[in-house]
Fold these 4 entries.
Entry 1:
Amino acid sequence: MSARAFALILTATVVPYAASAQETEWSYGALLATDYISDGESLSGHKPVLQGYAEVQRGLFYGGVWGSTLDDGGDHLEVELAVGIRPVIGGIELDLRYARTFYNKSGDCCGEIALSAEYPLSGLFYVTTEASYDFDTREVSTEAVFEYDLDEVWTLSAAVGADIDGEEDEGNSVSWGFGLGRAIGDNTWVDVSYLDSTTDEAHLVASTGFDF
């Protein structure tokens, strides 16, 4: 899919649902992290990164943009545009979306479709699972994230994921990690995570950010 075609889909999907400010929900946030780890590998050359997002949602439908600095093969900026739908079925929060990724130098990279589901096992324990398929690389990715609220400010998390590459010259990988987060007020937080994988050495990543 071309960048122009994706932009048309984004506009046609989001704009009609964002017409009324009273029925539209806006959200945004940003974070500063000591590294940008994806599938166990650093995309920032083990340097600090700044990431941020903005999103608009009306009813079940939403559209948004996410971006990050990086240092990966000559690119220094990654931007992802996404449109999707978020229904709730039987207490399970679903998210079905299509996302397209662009880089400042290499341009239009790839697009994927993803489905995630969040289910509260109790008032303090949450499980989120996600599966995605990249149409350009034919890569299938899966991930499961477990979160436990110790109290009103502290949260423990654990995650495990797997990537199955569709290209014959690429290998499959498994990644996992653990984290401890602390809320600071209603919108700000800090987090420290230990991340490891079958493709690279372990990393300790600290981050702080806000969400509104």
Entry 2:
Amino acid sequence: MTLEPLGMISAIIMMLSYPICIYAIYTKLEEAEDYLKLSTFIVTVKYRFGFGLFGGKLKRLFVIAIVILIPKLFQWRHLVLTEDVRRMPKRLKLWMVLPFLLTMSSFAGMALSWFLTE
């Protein structure tokens, strides 16, 4: 079974997810960080990764997406307040999570097609 089409489709999805990431970085990231300004994990990541590609904003976008996806784990470690995550509007949550899920699923598809090809 050839999995090259899966890898190619995943690569196309990844290339198409970059404009979505850039849009979310420059229009929605600050708003999301304002909702999570009482969370020590988000504040620490914001000041720790303030450098790099896009000023570290891509890392911060992915960290916020992970916090939105599994807030109970971060609450258990006393890093994030789940009330802050619940206060976020659903559209903003979608704009934070969608680029992360697109990027990670396309990465997984490319890795799977690479590992399973002959």
Entry 3:
Amino acid sequence: MTIDGEPWFVLADLCAVLNIGNSTMVAGRLAEDEVRRATLSLTEGSREVTRERPVVNESGMWKVILRSDSPAAEPVQRWVTHEVLPAIRKTGSYGAAPALTGPELIATALIEAQKVIEQSKAQVAELTPRAEAWDVMVSAAGDYAVDEAAKILSRDPGIDIGRTRLFTFMAEAGWIFRQGNRNRWHAYQTALNTGRLVERMGAAFLNSRTGEMEVAAPTIRVTPKGIEDLRALLIKEDAA
């Protein structure tokens, strides 16, 4: 809106673009000559009503944007600090967009900021289900066989691993080692102490070759903490 020939902006709308929730608090940080109350025509449902709302002048608008920590404000802040102010210092004026001046230039900047925040919201919405599913999985109780752990890890789009490769990867990471006549996998004590792995003792069995009862080698199982640590290591290896 224009008051006395100068552009004024509805503070609530400005805060909405910048994703700032409390416009009243923002108004309290502005100087008296930067903010005022104005009567606006609003649509509430099917009714046209008039309400008093805080509005800010051009100086107040720039102060709100430049002091904001919102990601939506960053493109405008960067434009001012990297283009406008250096150009004024060097040439005494800024003429990068001669077709847009005054309110039109400001409105264009705010529209661009709105695009940034909408893109950010879309990215968050896309990633949230995947993150929530992973959080539920790693917070579960119990432990998993190595082939089950490999399947869980492969749910991450950036990881493709099977049972055999996971055994090899854990050995290279210093979590497990081979031992005994049967060359079975065993967990290092450090992997057990840190809660990454557990060993489950198997039932005794009759060795048909010797005719003697033998104790089965312990079975290595991966805990939720171990899966999360393996995921971090696999992602790091892939990035390298």
Entry 4:
Amino acid sequence: MRLLKADQLFRKVIDGGWRKQSRLLGLDVGSKYVGLAVSDDKNRIALPLSVLSRTKTNISLMADDFVTLVSKYSLAGFVVGYPFNLQGQSSPNALQVRLLVGELCKTGKLDDMSYTYWDENFTSKVMCVEALLHPLKLHDPVETKTMTDKFAAVCILQRYLDNMNRELRSADNSGKQGDT
């Protein structure tokens, strides 16, 4: 896997640098689960997908799951939620994110994929996820946790898509103004 800047990953997807109708996969990495969300084929809307169980011994199986998802959804890359601190630096919780990405890279199964980190701080579970899940009135703690992780991935990916699409429109409008 290759780390790209957020805009580089999006530009490759939009410009068709991979496959036609490429999508992105959002990841919310936790200590026990990895929530997953996938973009629509126009890379405008994030949709909840699933949750993978995370242990120290199942990294190879997780990589296999990602390989399957890459094929099934024509994925071009991963948007990995990353907890930056207020100064834009890594927070202590970022270690588990870096460890997972590093372990996935070591498997060699995702060598042709790219990823970017996206600040997950503004997709807090209180602001985004709990507002989405509150009407469901979930009572099972495990179901609540897995749904929270899945929808956290939706929030991470949606914020990335919104930001990148806004930047793309802004750049396109600037170019059009320069042409007149």
